[in-house]
Design goal:
101 residues, Alpha-Beta Plaits, four-stranded antiparallel beta sheet, two-stranded antiparallel ribbon, 3 helices, 6 strands
Length: 101
């Protein structure tokens, strides 16, 4: 297994995605959704989650979401593009954000 730079792993995960859909996915598929840096790779995400939350990761799926175009009067702007990681945990593993780990 490849070793990663410890400092890099601390910066890969930006935030957990906490929403109605994320809760549904967590209950149904035993997955947790994270917003990650745009240049994060699947092995880096796996290593970062295992390091920070002390859990075993089975697989990682990644999706890139394009930022919405927003208008304010005649001015047009864009929101930032977001990269999400769907992290599938091994059976019996769980991350509880409500407990404030």
């Amino acid at each position: 297994m490849k070793t990663f730079n410890q400092e890099r792993l601390m910066q890969v995960l930006v935030a957990p995605q906490i929403s109605e859909k994320a809760t549904y996915v967590a209950d149904k598929n035993e997955q947790v959704i994270f917003i990650v840096t745009p240049d994060a790779t699947k092995p880096e995400i796996k290593a970062a989650v295992e390091l920070l939350f002390k859990v075993q990761v089975e697989s990682v799926q990644v999706s890139n979401l394009k930022g919405k175009e927003k208008r304010h009067g005649r001015y047009v702007g864009r929101r930032k593009d977001v990269r999400k990681a769907y992290v599938c945990l091994k059976p019996g593993q769980e991350i509880n954000f409500a407990a404030g780990e």
